[in-house]
Amino acid sequence: MVPEFEAVVIGAGVGGIAAGCQLRRAGIDDFVILERRDDFSGTWIANTYPGVALDVPSTSYEFTFAPNRWSRVFAPGDEVREYCQRVAWEHGLYERARFGVSVEREVWDEDNGFWTLHLAGGATLTARYVLNATGFFLEPRSNSGIPEVEKYAGKLMLSAGWDHDYDYRGKRVAVIGTGASAMQIVPSIAAQVAQIDVYQRTATWCFPKPDFAFGRIGRRLLRSDRFHTLAYMANWYVYQAVVVAAERLPKRVALGLVLGFERVLRAAYRTYLRFQVKDADARRALLPRHGFMANMPTFGRGFLQTFSRANGTLLTTPIERFTEEGIRTVDGAQRDYDMIVLATGFNVASDPEAFPIGAVRGRDGFDLGEFYRANGMQAYAGVTIPKLPNRWFLYGPYGWNGVTWVSMMESSALHVARVISAARADGAQVVEVTQEAHDEWHQMMATSPFTLVAQEYLVEHQLKRHNVRSYFFNERGETPILRPSQGFRDSLWNHSERFDPAQDYTFRSIAPKVARTRAAARSERAAAVAE
After folding, report:
1. Cβ atoms within 10 A of the Cβ of 225, count?
2. What is the distance between the alpha carbons of residues 318 and 265, in angstroms, rounded to a whole number?
3. What is the pLDDT of residue 482?
4. How far apart are the C-alpha atoms of 49 and 262, rounded to whole Å?
5. What are the helix (H) ranges across 249-367?
6. Would you call 337 exposed, middle or buried from its count of C-beta atoms within 10 A (0-12, 13-18, 19+)?
């Protein structure tokens, strides 16, 4: 049997756009992109809350093959969304996209050498290759474990799914969480509401955000492709230098340098808080106990100053439960609100539990969810695993190549396009990473000096001493996000450009049973649906 498509891409965010563009650049045009939302750009469709913007410089958030003329140093969300959609349009991805489609299960067909995707609603779709581009931040946490949310009778607002029809002006508002989203929402609405209470469990490092519109010189530089290349390389070398230093220095020395730097930084941050926050109690609560690399540090404009406003309050007493009128804290205090904003973060792809059992079934009964729960997070080159033929993640364990999210997606998609091109050239229909290549890669990741330094710092110095939870490590004590480097010259961050598919993958053909074109397969499926 012949599948309906040569390839399917799951997700139309940055990863899905990168996958589609790299496939087309490699001459692979028979693919479809499935997206549960109604357009390209992923998280920028979901996140439209007040003040949404990049928290990394704009030039870090672009494809190397599609430099953009950004308006600001940290572009607003609508500009990022328009950029992503423009790239998709210019590369012919809209005509290959199906929106409003959710994939529930992926099942490998060993006899025919392709994947069957089971979609919400009961339909199925078949493809030779599957590229999962659902990203790192998977689903928003609905209430972060706070009981009785269903009792609250006011407006419950999710940061990832803002209801713009609701008028919060003049209302009593609570914001739960102090992560990146909260730091943009809070100062954006503080002047318009009657009262804004921010519930903080863990203080977050909030550095000043040097955001401004590009002037004449900046706009001129952005018209130069060379400037965009230099900005990318600057990011690459700065991050790489930190990782290489951690790999080359003795672990005790590397940790000592990091912890010493953090002591100096904490003293400077304490001084910075004095200029931003008038209330001494709020200043003490806003000073993080953990190191600045233990969690995602943020850049903020106006967040800290909110707690010097007459209508702004920082609350650190743990929440006991929701009530019909608002929130009750463990000290018995009841506070009433018209709107409560849940900015409580996301389930992330570094946790084994983020992969449901039964959702991905590969060769010989292999189940991805069961594998991760039993063996921990691992994937060859951060993109694939043995017994999952013809399937890749755009983001997988140890996948972050240290530069930017966009460049990482572009690099992972390049890896996949190179393997599919090699299969085409070989006349093969099934490709699978070898167990040897996978195990060697994972051993290299798990035992790298950089990984060991990261685990010591995050688990021993941050989790156990300060009880800080982080995206950077999971419940198993693994740190499966940042990829080691092994040096500037042969950096593993450039692995997608240098690896040899024939060395690390097996290639095989499927014996033809019935000669049938993909067009015929699609026609038969359409006829079946019509009946």
Report:
1. 10
2. 28
3. 85
4. 32
5. 251-276, 280-286
6. buried
Bridge partners, residue 347, by sequence: 139
Instruction: Report the predicted TM-score, pTM, of the whole model to 2 decimal places.
Output: 0.93
**Closest Cα to residue 82, out of 61, 100, 55?**
61
Paired with 97 in beta bridges are 33
388 token code pair: 């999952």
Q: Which one, of 207, 162, 411, 366, lies nearest residue 301 by Cα?
A: 207
Structure tokens belonging to residue 276: 């931003």
Torsion of CA 172, 176, 177, 181, to 10 degrees: -60
In this prediction, the residues of the chain whose per-residue pLDDT falls under 70 are 141-144, 402-403, 512-531
503 by Cβ neighbours in 10 Å (0-12 / 13-18 / 19+) ranks as exposed
User: Residue 289 is encoded by which pair of tokens?
Assistant: 């106990």
Asked if residue 385 lies in contact with residue 370, where contact means CB atoms within 8 angstroms, the answer is: no
Nearby residues of 3 by Cβ (< 8 Å), 6 or more positions away: 112, 114, 115, 126, 127, 128, 518, 521
Residue 226 identity: R
Three-state DSSP class for residue 202: coil
DSSP 363-399: GGG-BHHHHHHHH-S--BTTTB-TT-TTEEESS-TT-
Cα 479 to Cα 469: distance, rounded to the nearest angstrom: 12
Give yes or no for a contact between 169 and 196, defined as CB atoms under 8 angstroms apart.
no
Give per-residue pLDDT as tens, 429-453.
Answer: 999 999 999 999 999 999 999 999 9
Among 126, 86, 89, 88, residue whose Cα is nearest residue 105 = 126
What Rg value do the Cα atoms of the chain yield, rounded?
Answer: 24
Q: In the structure encoding, which two tokens stand for residue 143, read together?
A: 């209430």
Instruction: Specify the pLDDT at position 522.
Output: 60
Tell me if 3 sits within 8 A of 127, measured CB to CB. yes
Residue 317 phi/psi, 5-degree rounding, is -70, 130
